[in-house]
Amino acid sequence: MDTAAVTRRPPRRLARPRRWAVLGVLLVMAALTAGWPLIDRAIADGEPVPAGAVLELGPSGSTALLRVAGAGWELSKSRSDPGSSYALSRDGVDLVAGYVDLSSGRSDAGQLWTGLRKVLSVADGATRLGGPRPVTSAAGARGLTGPLTRPGRAGTATVWVPPSENYAVEITVLAEPGTAPGTVADATAVAHSVAFPREAS
């Protein structure tokens, strides 16, 4: 009985066009993964904010005002919603100010501080918000402020509540190590410039 010869053939090599197609997909995936921060940076192009500019937070009738101290600040358009929140940056300092509507139920600064601590820890588990102390703004508004740290950054958080207690303003300032003291001082001045023009302080 004749035995048929068994021919073993090496596995077929991936055809060159197909190989290039797979390689192309991998390169596109790598480019997208590495490129998102670049895309985000392009979208978040800063808009210069002049010294002395006044930023309004909240609807008419419940408006808080912030005054920009010092030159060189930039507004992140992608992270800001005029009237609701502003994200400013300058030479290693990030300042974020947000309007909080409390019309559904009044809260004092102490309750807001506890809520802010929870929100910050959810956003970044390594963020630490210290105990608050009373603070008064340049315009006479009253609030609470305390130390805020995040890996590679340190600063403050401040909560401002008008006498009506139907809204609040929360401001965080975080600076990289080695940031010029003048820049940090300007950021603190912005955070402490809050005024509630339609309410008696």
Quick synopsis:
The protein is an alpha+beta fold and 201 residues long. The chain has helices at residues 16-43, 109-123, 181-191, and strands at 46-49, 54-57, 64-67, 73-76, 85-90, 93-101, 128-129, 133-136, 142-150, 153-160, 167-175. It is 27% helix and 31% strand.
SSE layout and pairings?
Elements: H1 16-43, E1 46-49, E2 54-57, E3 64-67, E4 73-76, E5 85-90, E6 93-101, H2 109-123, E7 128-129, E8 133-136, E9 142-150, E10 153-160, E11 167-175, H3 181-191
Antiparallel strand pairs: 1-4, 2-3, 4-5, 5-6, 6-11, 7-9, 8-9, 9-10, 10-11
Could you characterize what this model shows?
With 201 residues, the chain is an alpha+beta fold. The chain has 2 domains: 11-43; 47-191, Protein Transport Mog1p, Chain A (3-Layer(aba) Sandwich), CATH 3.40.1000. Helices cover 27% and strands 31% of the residues. It contains 3 helices and 11 strands, in the order H-E-E-E-E-E-E-H-E-E-E-E-E-H. Strands 1, 4, 5, 6, 7, 8, 9, 10 and 11 form a 9-stranded antiparallel β-sheet that branches. A two-stranded antiparallel ribbon has the order 2-3. A hairpin with a 6-residue loop joins strand 10 and strand 11. The longest helix is centred in the N-terminal third of the chain and has 28 residues, at 16-43. The N and C termini lie far apart (109 Å).
Feature tags:
two-stranded antiparallel sheet, 3 helices, disordered N terminus, Protein Transport Mog1p, Chain A, 27% helix, 2 domains, nine-stranded antiparallel sheet, 201 residues, alpha+beta
Radius of gyration: 26 Å
Average pLDDT, to the nearest integer?
79
Would you give the CATH topology of the largest domain? Protein Transport Mog1p, Chain A
How many β-strand runs? 11
Please work out how many helical segments DSSP would assign: 3
**Topology as H/E string?**
HEEEEEEHEEEEEH
Q: Give the second-level CATH assignment, the architecture of the largest domain.
A: 3-Layer(aba) Sandwich
Q: Approximately what portion of the residues adopt beta-strand conformation?
A: 25-35%
Given helix and strand content, the structural type is: alpha+beta
Shape: globular
CATH C-level name of the largest domain: Alpha Beta
